[in-house]
User: Fold these one by one.
Assistant:
Number 1:
Amino acid sequence: MADVTTTPDQVIANRGFSFRNALTAAEIDLRLLGMLLALAAILFGFNVLSGGTFLRPTNMATLAVQATGVAVLATGMVLVIVARNIDLSVGSVVGVIAMTYALLMTDWLPTFLGINSEFPFRWLIALGLGVAVGAVIGAVQGFIIAYVGVPSFVVTLGGLLSLRGVVWVMSQGAAVTGMDPTFQLMGGSAQGSIGGTLTWAAAAVGCLAVIGLLLYNRRQRRRFGFPLRPTWAELALGAVGCLAIIGLAAFANASYWPPGAATRYAQEHGIAEPAGGLKIPVGLPWPVVILIAVTVLMAFLATRRRFGRYVYAYGGNPEAAELAGINTRWTLLKIYVLMGVLCAVSAAIATARLNGATLDVGQSYELYVIAAAVVGGTSFAGGIGTIPGAVLGAFVMQALAYGLAYMGYNSPIQNIVAGVVLILAVGFDAYNRRRGGGS
Amino acid sequence: MSRARAAVGMAAAMIILGACSSPGGGSASASGSGGGGGNCVVGVSWNNFQQPRWGATDKPKMKQTIEAGGGTFIDADANLDNQRQLSDVDSLIQRGAKVLVLLAQDNKAILPALQKAKDAGIPVIAYDRLIEDTSGSVLYITFDNVGVGKAEAEAILQKVPKGHYVLMKGDPGDANASTFLPSGWDQAGLKDKIASGDIQIVGPKEGQFTPGWDTQKAQNEMEAIIDAANASNTKIDAVLAENDSTALGVAQALESKNYGFPPVSGQDGDPANLNNLALGKQYVDVWKNSNQLGIAAGQAALQLCQGKKINEVSINVDPSVAPAAGNSPTDFKTPGGNTVKSLILKPTPLTADQLGKVFAAGWYASKDQICKGVDSSSPGAAACK
């Protein structure tokens, strides 16, 4: 422990080696670690209860795909709540954009632009327009909140109500189905996954990124004369990060296409099927890839860019941020635009999964998203909350819902458990904070 | 259809740009030639026009029937608002309605309106939705909801007499989901077959409820049930889904899991589900031909106008939907313990080969929508030709 660089208050706590001190030295976010352990406990708990069948790769892929829609939104909701605001309209915005995608594919693109099913990149055109719709809705709401000064609770409550009405009007009350096959890949079935090779490649990139980031941080700290992490901690972090990523890739690749789909694939591509069937590794589902990309981008934005700094500064103390010369209104407006764009991403996943849009896509998402952010350690007092925490929060909530459904419990039971866990998680957090453990 | 939808879409886009504007028009709008002309004015209060079926089938047929019989049709849309429906009824009475047709937003909140009608001596038809009435002055005209469940289960049980079933139910707070449809399933023999062991339930034994009849939730639940069934090497042989929005989620879960398509039931005749029927992703859709419901209500309203008592009403609708109990009202025991005179029409179970009935009836789902993606190997190939 001699080479551990300590701050004065840590010296007081440093009475010999303890697990907690080691974690502190490695600068591991204890709350995040706690969340990970809680998630692991839930998964292993269900595994025991189900007689060891729960932790199968296919099941975990289902769980992950089901969590993406809410998790993507939760990364944005963190910033909204950190900035002492709220967005109740996300579910309805998702509904409007989902219906936009469905109508673009089945009606508007072919009717108005002559872009029918043979046209390549139809999915990209639809996605671009959806993102534009999301950004515009976000900008309008953000403008009213930041510049007109109407409380966000009121503005987004209005959005929740009126935009759900817009969905009805757009669809004339009926579900619209029939999405582009390429668009459907975002839904993450066996075909909608990136496959074995790409999964390994992604893992390699991820592993290198972890190591690169550690090296970069160490160099920067040395350059500015900041205290360094002990070498053993750096090595351990790199090893654990890399192993976790490779382990996840191996896990994702351990499930194979369903036999029927594999046979069809073999026939379509003229491959002679070996005895025992063709084994095609599924790999990471596309929506999960999208979620990882969104999480990395949002975490980068929140912790490494000026925009993110401003959001946390404003959330910590609005007056001080204003006096420090931060354009707080512009920052607030940008948060809502970002939220609108994330709604477009979430809507794309939902539409791809449903192969269309129903009237209730996104219904009550706002509650799940806020719950995910809060379970993930975001504080309504403002200024506190992390992107990875919110994503983990979404996974914790979905793991409970999926696990209970998997065990054959009915949806009212799922709701009871979700509500109790929400209160427990926040209560535990508040208790910890009062005791002074990790802020 | 698609042009109209596109135009509506543009209007919707404008609403988005205008931020907080709520859809829906003003209150009580007249639809007939300004009253007074005919001696029989029928006032209709809709709870909402948000589902396409009301505007596409119920309203025009009712209006046609009444006007062909020399009456006058006036109506109002309460836009899902209890209070507004009460004031709508007031204004319909003031405008001279001799008979009221009520599609109640809430079967208890509507009672003050019923009292007003009674005070004015106006007979009331409860259209499609029950009103808990104790006075015997209401005629209830609807499709047989227990019969819908029965038809769903009969079709699926005939196709798959033995095996593993998933039960997919709707919102736990809706009496249709928790009481009427399941009792129809049991009447068709589901309960006995479970007791005898011919049918085993996969997933929750009492059925998986779907809050808000939400398609996404149904999809998530079904995916979990499929995963659990795969883990225990159980093959799902059939799915009894209560309605079309849950059936759509089930079909998508089966699709995303590459499970193939065991027979799935549904009801409502939604365009997306009729399309699934033609594509073989859903086996049966129990269809309530609401054209006939509108005609029945129009006929009954005219007769009540002429001074007939509720008991003396006699309707004349298409034989395929005619009430099993005959063309005159019979007693119906409500869940609230009251007895209401009622005409209960028969629903029509549709499989892919019977889609022609929908085309012939002028349903709001167009043939293009229903037959989208159908090729020569699809179950709906013959009907879609």
Number 2:
Amino acid sequence: MKRILILVGILGIVSVLAPFAGPFVILLLAQVLVLGIMAMSVDLLLGYTGLPSLGQAAYLGVGAYLTAILATKYGIGLGWDFWLVVAAGMLSGAATAAFFGLFAIRASGVYFLMITLALGMCVWGLAYRWNSLTGGDNGINMRGRPKLGDLAFSNDLTFFYVVLGFFLASFFALQLLVSSPFGRSLVGIRERELRMRILGYNTWLHKYIAFVIAGAFGGLAGVLWAHLNGIVSPSDVILTTSVDALLMVVLGGSGTLVGGLIGATVVVFLREYLATLVQWWQYVLGAVYVLTILYLPGGIMALFKGGRR
Amino acid sequence: MDAKFWLIQTFNGVSYGALLFLLASGLTLIFGVMRIVNLSHGAYFLLGGYVALTVMKYTGSWLLALPVAALAIAVLGLIVERIFLRPLGFDPLRQVLLTVGFAFLFQQAALDIWGGDNLIIQPPPALSKSIVVGGLHLPVYRIFMIALAAAIGLALWFAMERTRMGAMVRATVDDAEMARGVGIDTSRVSMFIFALGAFLAALGGVIGGAFLGVYPGLDFEVLPIAFAVVIIGGMGSLAGAAIGSMLVGLADNFGKALFPEVAYFSLYAPMVLILAMKPTGLLGRE
């Protein structure tokens, strides 16, 4: 509970200070929040269910491409029907996960990691090669963000607040989910799947539902990601995006939800902000990976005793 | 779409598969012995190519560059395994993320040392010709690739099936705990296998540098394809890696030639299908 209050407090301070930040920093903050949603969806799988997904970029990609295609080819989603696209993005993410889950949930541990990686690569392959639909390597350039009545998302600050709203909604929804009886049984599956099965839980179904929900939030992140960047390309769906999401969770602390946001902050600012300052930013990112894994197995949250280890 | 087209595409597919075998055999051995999903495997492939370029720059000898690059990268792999991977013990997720960290570090180091240009490793003139067989022009280099992969495949098979070290490796793959119980130093086996994997990847990087080129980003381009091979063939199985590389090599070539729009999909979709039917891959064991 304290954790949630601190999170809301920090986000409150950030949102008050945001108007005074430079345009670049505002964009980065919005990126942090969008990737934070994706990281939380990974955390639902990794931290609560014990499923290390290495293909979460697939759902982000499905949501993002859907948004871009609807907007550029059919002009849908640029007015009040933006909400329709949000719903469609979540549904498409969930549907993709529902299909992929049939293959993935059978496996566990390292095998789950490999299968989700393979599934993620399928989506990347389609995005990269299916020129007529996805624009191939060049991707799809969006023509401006939605405008809901007087509220124009084209203003970066406005869009930041919109993204913040979506982040908070996702956070509370997921928080509710993991503290529900369903969420508690997911943790039970993480700890001792066999015991849960003996107790009469349908563990496959539990994991499957968690997988689909994670896909839905991945899709939501995709919708926002498309509008944030104004372009959707195969590089959004690439393996590195999935790996980053996983790292964000481990870096921040898995099984905490908040950890995903902390991890996203560190990774985005290292990747994007430091890159504008120095040439050797990637050494720092690599070193952060290595050092976290070696010395901070419980992630940054473990420093505040909130982590699960 | 005559017979010639099919023959040439098959030949190209098989020779590409030969290259994939070099990359994937190490990956599958590492997975089998250490249960590590090694995401820095592509980086070893790339670094192998770069080191070979440097050796060729100073000595001009491609024949010398091949073993020197492979050995140098094997030593690098050895160091990473000893200092960083070993202390983690058995924790797949942390090991995976650690190898990603190294993949990024190596990527940046390669960019700083060798720059961002797309470089080509020029094979010796004797291998750059092509011969005509039954009206088909076949590059000698691709024939050499197939021969080399076959030779290495046979050597690996022999080492695994007929030597003491191979028996120790197989025992570790089957049941590491039991292997330790009968006195096998599994830590040394892991060290050996990781170095061997890096060696093979670097060898592939030098060989592949002649037609794929050597450039930043190549590491993460070849990695998923190597994983496709390993997943299809069965993780930890050498024979599986051989079958998998042929399948992927052919699927990739025919996919790109026949259905360019869904080429990568035609590569990864069969993999998903195989996994759906047999989660451990064609020749993998539980």
